[in-house]
Design goal:
The chain has 218 residues and is an all-alpha fold. Helices cover 64% and strands 0% of the residues. The radius of gyration is 18 Å and the shape is globular.
Length: 218
């Protein structure tokens, strides 16, 4: 069986992915009750996610509407775009619910590494739009693997248990956990399957050089 570009990304990023997961699982409890009396640290953390997802998703939309792109590249980008997967708005809702205005993220000049990464995303996607494959796979598909486990831990910490009369997604939204949920009855499992199918279908459109670019960016 020939490996898909998604499989190749997973292989290329496995060690980094493992290290990052271990770091998140180590630090996450520190930001949650009972180790802290508020959700401010968690909200501050996802505010950084919001900055990154906003930069990425804004660049994605700009790439799709660019008129100078070759038809093949446009086909790849349109195939990749699944609006229901976008996370910036959900993160914004969670932050507004959890984080007092006085604790909001400072101006980017006070976080040069964050701003540098956002600039890297914008410049990279402007020069090589096919790199969107790397970002969409990593930013979205991770929420269906380790993200599900993290969500279960957050539900416990945020006192968002299942109540038979209220849908779990509604409870999560009220608790500030919208980021970890997706629209639809299957909570995004259909979106994941659709996205993977799209990626497999467009794999043949990629040149070897583009595949190498995507794996290097990952």
């Amino acid at each position: 069986m020939v490996a898909t570009i998604g499989d190749e990304i997973n292989t290329a990023t496995r060690s980094h992915h493992t290290t990052l997961n271990q770091l998140i699982l180590h630090l996450l409890p520190v930001s949650l009750p009972p180790n802290t009396s508020t959700h401010d640290l968690y909200a501050l953390g996802i505010s950084r996610f919001h900055s990154i997802y906003s930069a990425f998703e804004s660049s994605f939309r700009q790439s799709i509407t660019a008129t100078a792109l070759p038809s093949r590249t446009k086909e790849i980008l349109h195939s990749l775009h699944v609006p229901q997967l976008e996370r910036a708005e959900a993160l914004d809702n969670d932050i507004n619910l959890l984080l007092p205005p006085s604790h909001r993220v400072p101006e980017p000049s006070q976080h040069p590494r964050l701003e540098a990464f956002k600039q890297h995303i914008r410049i990279s996607l402007a020069h090589k739009p096919h790199l969107l494959i790397a970002y969409t796979w990593i930013f979205y598909m991770a929420l269906f693997s380790g993200g599900r486990y993290i969500r279960s831990k957050l539900r416990t910490a945020f006192a968002s248990p299942s109540i038979s009369t209220i849908p779990q997604r509604q409870l999560d939204e009220q608790a500030g956990l919208s980021f970890w949920n997706f629209p639809g009855d299957s909570n995004g499992e259909d979106l994941k399957a659709d996205f993977k199918a799209r990626l497999i279908a467009l794999s043949d459109l990629l040149t070897e050089e583009e595949r190498d670019d995507i794996l290097a960016e990952s």
